[in-house]
Amino acid sequence: MIASATALLDAGGESAVTLRAVGHASGISHNAPYKHFKSRDALLAAVATTDFVWLADTFRAVRHGASAPASKLTQALKVIVHFSVEHPARYRLLFNDPEIAAVGGDLEVSARSAFAEFLGIVQDCQAAQKLPAVPDIALAGLLFATTHGLIGLAASGRMHPEKGLSSVESSLKMLVSLLQVSGTKLPGS
Amino acid sequence: MIASATALLDAGGESAVTLRAVGHASGISHNAPYKHFKSRDALLAAVATTDFVWLADTFRAVRHGASAPASKLTQALKVIVHFSVEHPARYRLLFNDPEIAAVGGDLEVSARSAFAEFLGIVQDCQAAQKLPAVPDIALAGLLFATTHGLIGLAASGRMHPEKGLSSVESSLKMLVSLLQVSGTKLPGS
DNA sequence: ACCTGAACACCGTTCAAGT
DNA sequence: ACCTGAACACCGTTCAAGT
Fold first, then answer.
1. What is the dihedral angle through the alpha carbons of B7, A92, A119, B143, rounded to the nearest 10 degrees?
2. Is-contact B163 A153, C-beta < 8 A?
3. Chain B within 8 Å of A132 (Cβ-Cβ)?
4. Nucleotides of chain D within 7 Å of a protein C-beta?
């Protein structure tokens, strides 16, 4: 049922995920989902939870890989960007949907877990002097937020008129390189 | 009618903006809007256009104010943050709604106009050596995207667990200060 | 416990008809 | 030209009833 909803999201966006379509794709009636989920939003939240768990696992794999810290950060950011490109509706569910986020519960736990793994990668970069020694959580939030913002603006066509998606990665590269410069001269020193 | 839709957005979010409610609030029938707008999305796009025009005007006023360039940048970012706090549904319409963005036309023109004013403020900061001398459009996009991303993550409750909205402004302050440090040592030099 | 089918109260949108 | 009222094809959700 979660799988059906996920497939419908990828195929037709959030509006395509009607309980009738989910029921039909799962071979059950259109209101059988109510026996397993409190509402349509709860079903969508379950999809989002699954994706957050996947994100956390992927970040963990990147972090424990063999690359240099700065390269791991780039890889993690690419994971986010690629996910947003390949599964835009699911990405929006994760980071752009207040109604879904309000569900809380497992969803919030899995979201924090994914962020914690990302934070670990940022901390490793700081330890390796590849990022400035500002508070780690704020820095990780800033990097994540910038990636998220670039993705959102690109998706809305509200970014650099002439460029397309590639500008997301090049903008991120610019940010990381600017921050590395900052790392060599700590603010306040 | 645009005013009715705007009020409904502020009061109850996007889902409250039904054509029946708009018609009732405007003293007309529930499908009279179709004589003025091609669809519900077109009406929402008209609301977004109005807000983009307001944003462009506000940015322009900031830019031509008496403050120092760096202060103008801070003011412009605050305008965005405050708008997102006071009118979350309208903010989402501007920057988080692919369906609305796809309408194009006047909406896109007004969006580009707002970005152009913001770009001007960034350029002034670069001229005053308050921001690094990287390509101006990319830098403006980066600053805007970061602000947008921080707002979105804060709205989704997906940011620093312990902090709230104030962390958006403090994170932005951190970014600008880090970029100012970078400005003193250009990358590649 | 889990599922079904009908029903309810909504939607956006269309259309024939009025002025 | 602009508006109305009824109608159509959907929704999410509820509920009595089945197994």
1. -60
2. no
3. yes
4. 2-6, 10-15
Q: Domain A41-179 adopts which CATH fold?
A: Tetracycline Repressor; domain 2 (1.10.357)
Probe site for chain A from B108, B181, B184, B186 (most A CB atoms < 10 A): B181
Q: Where are the beta strands (DSSP E) in B44-130?
A: none
What is this structure's pTM?
0.90
Closest protein CA to C1' of nucleotide C4, residue: A29
Question: Among partner residues B108, B141, B174, which is closest to A138 by beta-carbon distance?
Answer: B174
Tell me: the pLDDT tens digits for B108-149? Answer: 999 999 999 999 999 999 999 999 999 999 899 999 999 999
Measure the CA–CA gap between B19 and B148, rounded to whole angstroms: 29
Nearest-10 crossing angle of helices A69-86, A40-63? 150
| Chain B residues with beta carbon closer than 8 angstroms to that of A185 | 181, 184-185
**Tens digit of each residue's pLDDT (9 = 90 or more) over A157-177:** 666 655 555 688 889 999 998
Tell me the two tokens of residue A26.
């799962």
Each domain of chain B, given as residue ranges in start order, spans 1-37, 41-179
A101: closest chain B residue by CA: B156
From A88, A112, A153, residue closest to B145, measured CB to CB: A153
Rounded Cα–Cα distance for residues B187 and A180 (Å): 9
